[in-house]
Amino acid sequence: MPFNSQRAERRTDALSKARIVEAAIQILDADGEGALTFRALATRLATGSGAIYWHVADRQALLAAAADHIIAGVMSEVTMRSKPQDAIRTIALGAFDAIYAHPWIGAQLSGDPWQHAVLRIMESIGRQVQLLGMPEAALFNATTALMNCVLGVAAQHAAAARLPRNTERSAHLTAIAEGWALLDPLEYSFVRRLAAQLPGHDDREQFLAGVNLVLAGIQSIWF
Amino acid sequence: MPFNSQRAERRTDALSKARIVEAAIQILDADGEGALTFRALATRLATGSGAIYWHVADRQALLAAAADHIIAGVMSEVTMRSKPQDAIRTIALGAFDAIYAHPWIGAQLSGDPWQHAVLRIMESIGRQVQLLGMPEAALFNATTALMNCVLGVAAQHAAAARLPRNTERSAHLTAIAEGWALLDPLEYSFVRRLAAQLPGHDDREQFLAGVNLVLAGIQSIWF
DNA sequence: TGGGCTGTTGGAACATCGTTCCATTTCTGT
DNA sequence: ACAGAAATGGAACGATGTTCCAACAGCCCA
């Protein structure tokens, strides 16, 4: 009779996609995108990687589900009884704040602009754009232009999300600005000018300015 | 005397970062981002992976160098004697065409918005924005808003670049649109409306429309 | 001319990772 | 009670980025 023939204790609480996604989000928030491995996830859930694959297709699907879970929460909270322009600003800022709080979402959104989480944002924004009442073709151009603002900050924070965990946010920007300052003054006069403002600038404010720019463009072209 | 003690023939032409980047671009263009492995690269260059690491820091640096090489070529070709708005359109379309021709650049640009290749584009656009003559702070907001248009299409093509190589471009869009058509009509009314237009739309035209929207916004706010 | 020294090369070896496979356990309906 | 289906845990596979190191080439200086 083999001494060791029995398995380890089976978990009492059942595994489920929801529980897996929840654990994945905890890992992502704590240690960034690189830390989300099936081994780490299996350890945290006290199971094996095979069991996880029963509930989730692959790593990409897991990341998409994690991003969708958070974006869904943010988008459902947005209530709007104001005029469309203000509603659009509220939605966009909601997306911004989510990306800011969970930088790995930036990488996920900009990595696949047609995943469900992006659709959620697009639907929210698109509905408000519809209320502005412009021709059909212009409708989609305007919505995707607004989406570009969101995907733009997503990409910016995606880069920061891949950084080692200890790096400070402001230190990151300062380091970038210092790199820019070393560029050839003739070839990169504009970028060097920008570098001076980079460390002290407000991400959120700049994001909002971009959205307002697009809104102003919509207003001026069709109204 | 061991029969096999001599090494393989050493290459006559010297290895160099330029030669490595060139070979990397060939692989990327031929088989997409996933195909660029150090093993494949070493085989194509008839050398070992260690030799490549002597010239290139790591895979990320290699991809950045490849993207920069192509973007540098595109940006240097842009000649402009027209008014700033037209010049901006020309630059943006140049970036668009580069991304369209080499979809892996999309993944690279949107994956790290502060790499050199992106700076090149930003410098080109920023200089033209300067010529418009607006206040300092607005300058950077306007430039980054225009960059968002570029990073937006970059992200869109990045997704397509990760697809299996045989997939057609239009088939990809059609498949996406079909997926959208299956969504809940109540929750996703806007996206479903968009799905109808997706397969037949012109990427380049929509990109230009986004740029024009931002340009119109700039015009309407500061002039 | 010869002998080290530095820059360079090729390829084996290492550490991980995503994913697959499968023996085994648990659940469910009859 | 039992058969089939659902679910589990962990070993094993194949591939990748990266590191390491023994060997080599060209060069300067004695």
From TrEMBL, chains A, B:
Residues 37-56 bind DNA. Keywords: DNA-binding, Transcription, Transcription regulation. InterPro entries: Homeodomain-like_sf (IPR009057), HTH-type_TetR-like_transc_reg (IPR050109), HTH_TetR (IPR001647), Tet_transcr_reg_TetR-rel_C_sf (IPR036271). The keyword Transcription regulation applies. Pfam families: TetR_N. The keyword Iron does not apply. This is TetR family transcriptional regulator. Residues 14-74 form the HTH tetR-type domain.
